[in-house]
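My current task is to audit a protein record that another person submitted. I need someone to confirm that the token line plausibly describes how this chain folds. Take the sequence as given and treat only the tokens as open to question. This is what I was given:
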Amino acid sequence: QVQLVESGGGLVQPGGSLRLSCAASGATLDRYVIAWFRQAPGKEREVVSCISHTVGNTAYTDSVKGRFTISRDYSKNTVYLQMNSLKPEDTAIYYCATVSYFSSNGCPTVGRNWGQGTQVTVSS
């Protein structure tokens, strides 16, 4: 019912910023809870952030709190992940996905509908 496409990844120096986009089609984005996941080489996939149907309800994993911000633009049917103060440890393929619920205590760890991913590389 919904298709997701990520974009905005690239190469950035430590301390720099990137904004990732997750564009939805086939359904309006406000029907879904959306989460950002990432997976680095040799490591397990982890959830980074999630946002409820209401833009004011967001959650983040501890390693990105204070640096990353998730948001929605309903007019563009898009979810964003603003990433500031990037570290080499943030290097990964980033995916957006629909998830089944929202909790301010922690994001769901199982995605349902997935985008194709976008590469983020933080290196000097």
Q: What stands out?
A: The beta strands are 3-7, 10-12, 18-25, 33-39, 46-51, 58-60, 68-73, 78-83, 92-99, 118-122. The chain has a mean pLDDT of 94. The first strand starts at residue 3 and ends at 7. DSSP finds no helices and ten strands in the chain.
